[in-house]
Amino acid sequence: MTQAVARIGMFGGTFDPVHLGHLRSAVELREALMLDCVHMIPAPSPPLRGVPQVDASQRLALLEAGVGDTPGLKVDARELDRVGPSYSVDTLSELRAEYGPSARLVMAVGVDAFSRFAQWERLEALFELAHVVVMARPGYDTPWSDALRELLGHREVDDVAALMASPSGGILVLSLPSRIDVSATELRERLADGRSVRYLLPDAVERAIVAQKLYRR
Ligand SMILES: Nc1ncnc2c1ncn2[C@@H]1O[C@H](COP(=O)(O)OP(=O)(O)OP(=O)(O)O)[C@@H](O)[C@H]1O
Ligand SMILES: O=C(O)c1ccc[n+]([C@@H]2O[C@H](COP(=O)([O-])O)[C@@H](O)[C@H]2O)c1
Hints:
Layout: E1 7-13, H1 20-33, E2 37-42, H2 56-67, E3 73-75, H3 88-99, E4 104-110, H4 111-114, H5 123-129, E5 131-135, H6 146-153, H7 160-163, E6 171-174, H8 184-193, H9 203-211
Parallel strand pairs: 1-2, 1-4, 2-3, 4-5, 5-6
Nicotinate mononucleotide binds near residues 47, 88, 89, 113 and 120.
Protein name: Probable nicotinate-nucleotide adenylyltransferase
Organism: Halomonas dongshanensis
Function: Catalyzes the reversible adenylation of nicotinate mononucleotide (NaMN) to nicotinic acid adenine dinucleotide (NaAD).
């Protein structure tokens, strides 16, 4: 009897705070790639950016409120147990060990995060562990740098079927159906100014932010 091969997604982020751009992308990613589940993983110390405004355990609680019971999305706190920068290669290494060598493991990043991908930690090892899906995002249409073009060179595939033909090593640039133009930066600014964030993030996340008096000036 043949056994179905697991298809697993990893969606890491600072999530400071989580918003509908993240959540809608995760749901659509799961549908587009027919993933069993998407691990939503907050980064306590995201590399290549400043210190988040809110601490990791509070960002985790907001993510849990935002994901709620969404089918196929799994809030995963594993990076909070680690010290030092939250390198994705370390997280993927753990997921690969858990799901085994034939699982299709896919890390999703927005096009803005991908623009600095050449600076990420241990890229060769990362591509041995996982595929990378680059998600389009409104307002980020800058052309690829030479370093990125070189990375894409022999790894880029045209569609989901080609990506899923192997466990790791490919890059797929994907335009998911609803590209939601919201950023955590914009939300932090709105909250600091006392302006409304309604309909930009889940109601449960807004309630938790208000109850805990987060992101106020
Ligand atoms: N609206 C969006 N649509 C698609 N992808 C997104 C969107 N917002 C964030 N992402 C992606 O989600 C991941 C985590 O993003 P992050 O938590 O840094 O949110 P952000 O809105 O970009 O935050 P900030 O404004 O603080 O930089 C990154 O790969 C990022 O590209
Ligand atoms: O591994 C790296 O070198 C690396 C460099 C930059 C970002 N990341 C991860 O990418 C995810 C998105 O990061 P950010 O800063 O766009 O929120 C988050 O999970 C980070 O830990 C990872």
